[in-house]
TrEMBL record:
This is polynucleotide adenylyltransferase. Residues 1132-1202 form the MJ1316 RNA cyclic group end recognition domain. It is found in: Nucleus. Residues 1089-1105 have a biased composition (Acidic residues). It is an enzyme of class 2 (transferase). GO terms for biological process: mRNA processing; RNA 3'-end processing. Belongs to the poly(A) polymerase family. Its EC number is 2.7.7.19. Its main location: nucleus. GO terms for molecular function: ATP binding; poly(A) RNA polymerase activity; RNA binding. It comes from Amniculicola lignicola CBS 123094. It comes from the Eukaryota. Residues 489-532, 1079-1129 are annotated as: Disordered.
Amino acid sequence: MAPIEDSVDSGHVSLSSHDTALCVIPPQDQCHSVDQLRSLYDKGHGKWPPHVNLLYPFVAPEKLLQTKTLLQDKLQQAMQGHQGNKQDVRLKQAGFFPHRRNNTIYLCEEGSISSALEFFRSAVLKALGHEPTPCSFHLTIGQSEDRTISSREFLLSKARLLPSMEFPVHSLAILVRELVGDSKTQSRMRLWGTIEIESDEQSTSPPLTEFWLQKTDGRSNNPEDEGISESAVAPFSRQIEPGTTFHFQTNSGLWISGHPTEESEPLPEEIGISSYNVLIDSEYPPSRDRDPLLLEAILSQKGVADILVLQEVSDDFLSYLLGDSRVQELYPFTSHGPPSQEDLGPLPNLRNVVVLSKWNFSWEFVPFHRRHKGAVVAKFDAISKNAGSTALPLIVAGVHLTCGLTDGSVAAKKVQLLNLKNHLSRRYASNPWIIAGDFNITTSSQTINTALKNKSISAQTTNTLEEMEAIFPDTGLLDAWSVSRVAGTDEPRVGSHDDDDLFEGEQGSTFNPRENTLAAATSGTSNNRPQRYDRILTRPQGVFRIAKFNYFGVLENDSTQFSVPSDHWGIRTSMKMLADPTEASTGRTEMLESYSVQAMHTSGALTDNSALTNALLCHDMFPTDEEVQARKDAFALVERVVLGADGENSDIPMVIVPVGSYSLGVWTSASDIDCLCIGAISSKTFFKLARQRIHRAGAQGVRLLRKVDANTGTMFELSVNGISMDLQYCPAARVVEKWAEFPTLSPSDPIFNLSILSLRKLKPYRDTLYIQRTLPSISTFRLAYRCIKLWAVQHGIYSSKFGFLGGIHLTLMLSWVCKRMAYDNATFSATDLVATFFHHYANFEWENGMIFDVFFHNNIPRYHRSSQEPMVVLGYHTPNSNVAHTSSVPALNTLIKEMKNADQRLSQRGMTWEKFFGVLPPMVNAPMLSPGVTDFLTSHENYAKITIQYWGRSLSKGKGLVGWVESRCVNLVVDIHRSVPDVHVRVWPARFTNKQNRDWEAGIDDYQGCYLIGLSKTEGAVSNPTKEDKILAKQALQKAFQKFLDQLQSDEKHHDPSSCWTDIELVKPSDIKDLQLDDREWGNYIPDAEPDSDDEEDMPEEEDLPLPTANPHTAVKLPHRPLSSPVSTTKLRPASDILNRLRWDPALSPGDYIVGYEDRFLGVKETSLERWKTEQTDDEFIPQHRIMYFKRRGDGVVVWERKTRIDKIFGSGIGNGKA
């Protein structure tokens, strides 16, 4: 039996139980803003309702029934005798209670006014036999993080922004504690009952419900958590919360909720979406000094869009932003109203995601497993996809994932991404999506590798980072930056650092401590690596396609502004709306579907980029710091010498730029430097001037080795302090005038209305610029390039002049695979790129397929493939030419075989990069042969051995002889393949020599070497040929050999019998077992005193030629005498002069003449002069030095011939042919 003092009937009841409470609970419709804050900051949320305690502790649970009956009667009696309106409560003022570790933030009534709360407490205490005592009535909002002033004031500032809570008290709530599940520690307060203040007849209030209760057993009630570990799900509400969209009402000047009446407007042809992390750099007080900068960045031409997704938005900044009239006009709809507006309330978090738009939208908040994290998912009915009778609106999700590179933070990011993906896939499976925001995913391989090395993260975390990147393509999402980058429609940041020092994953960065002072401050140092944290991902679903991409909030070069708005750059993408859904499957999209690349992924030890790098280092595939500096110095020296920067004729407008491997940063110590000089003077003047300046710079280490008539025109081979350089020239005065604008000029710009020869010379540089401009990761490309080049060198298939791969082949082939993978997968490693390269080209349909960049060529390039081109690799800019024109069927078969073997080896279990490249031979006096060379020397039944002996002194002539022989080897391979089709033919692209020849002392002017062509039966060949078959095959071989020798020895320019000897023979493997590779230069340097060529440099520039004044097609019979007096009785006018005269002289018709030229494989061929001029075929791009003669179509009279030196056009050479 209870003690007398505890009996309710005794008039004195004990108030000591913490299992019960008597409180006032505000109406549920006034609790939204309060509960939004409590869910994040109050540890009692989900356990206690928003309430004001009258008595806690309260009576024991077993006495609740008696106590309720007593208090019901006493309170109603008290109310009958009470005058005035004492039932109203007004919670408006914010305050705090200090504790040892933090502060409790609350709402209370203002001042010391007599309140209903005090009245009810006093009445209850008296009814239970207690004297009234003072009490601080309050409604708890939450607890601060710690006791710091900033933490306390931050939460206090949010509490002050809460709308005032005003309500009458109709009842008092009795709460009783209940244990949750099987737990003995977790509990929650249930509604036991209410004490009605008014009688049943008077009461108009709705019944009180337990709206505050939620699951707190650690399990998610969010269906989007399917597939996510329970340990990753937080013990707080995960319910998806519908949001309220606000629109600006011009008349009242307020942001109000609801859906205004809208006039339907047609959608523009393009819509833009921007994403910007505006940075909160202090919890409290709010920093406002950057607000004007942020506002101007958002409203700038590059930043303004139709939909704007902001991250790290604070109450203070949102109020400032939405208070600007320009924002109100551009973005009249917002997911969150200005907190400074009295009736709206604060934002829930310190860092919030906010969506603004020019169109109305509805939205929902998808909470993540960590407090303060979630996605704002907006639905735009104005932009929709028609699916039959149903419209599927555009879904835009704004995100800001957990920051940091730790095991925990990376795991959290993955869970958040999966949570969002599951939500979108469930609710909006067929809708178009856009996901924009700060993903906080570390992309720099250097940062990740350093963290792994320092054991800041585990190997599992690096796998998790890769798995996160795979979530996007698996869901059909395209990265706007990657798509725009590979298509060349992204706008590079002005003033960004050189890509040369970027690591994998750093290109396209939006958070760069090296450029952004705020990023350096937030990351702790300016030495931290750039990261591409911010992204815009799209799933178009036929509604739109990505058109452009740009950055904003970036300091321009000419800016007088010294501070940046945020630590992140803003990003913006434009999307072209597709009126017809079928439009999405036409044009480039259809081509991309037709020209797909299957992405391959390495496994095991092959996934390690550092292992690949180490393997390449062992094979000297990276230049040393000394070599890098030596080449920089060499290029700078050539630039000074050629341009005359030391003072002589420095007023001549010229520029000189590197092209090829050096400009792409993929060169090795064995590479030369290809240079292109562009100027306003003629080719003839340039080469004369350059020759003079180079000779005068001999004391500085600049040497002219020889002049070469290359496919693209005249070229100087130089040696600059031991570094080989090739120098070409392009006459293009207007290009030089606009040189500063050149990288950004459109391909259709009138400045490129140049001659075919000039365009051909500019093409390598223009193509290089485009590749650098559109590669998604230059560092990934470079590492993969070096890997593939080393493989090609080892297997004897790296040499374009022998019909195999060259630097330009690798560049074009690899860049296409790289860009296509970026389009499909957004991010990938260099090892994945290498594996994909081998798999793609090992299975490529070479017979009918062409390799070209679909992103550059919107349609299939207009290229007429000849029967002599088994392999077609096209570049970018005009003119379209096949860089693989020297390829042959045997060479292509060898390439395919080697690529299939590489593809297969990379798929083997246990394969490593060290095994893939093999062990280096030991360093001894005589260099050992690599495994590839050794295998070649032993894997064929017979070899065609081409022997050369040279005893001349001139290095120029020695190089010319070697180059001439090498260029003819392709013809020999083709002839052998045609003559003996059952034989597999393979040339090794290097010169061999005997050991004794290699070890001769320097100064012995007698060089001997050979080239080898392996001959072996093909798989389908007859196993036991007859004797007659063998004889016929041998005769066919000898015929091909003799034709080859005749071609070699008939060229007087390169083959001088007085200083060289050549021969070819069929040998057995045993005859060549002692051969070694010969890397010597044949000859000694002698200053080149060769007179200027009679070919290109004498050619008038196209713009200087006389324009026709009469119909050029009018046939005029040539007079019997020369048309002009001979300029020389011995020097023959070059073919280029004849070609241009026949084109432009109004007295002559180009249709009346035929051009005879030497084909690489078929000998002398003919074509019309008109066809040579107009069609972009292989004929047009044949170097002019291979023109043999011109003749009249009507009577077949030869009017110019190189061999006989006849010139009936100008009268040069021997004139009309008379001795």
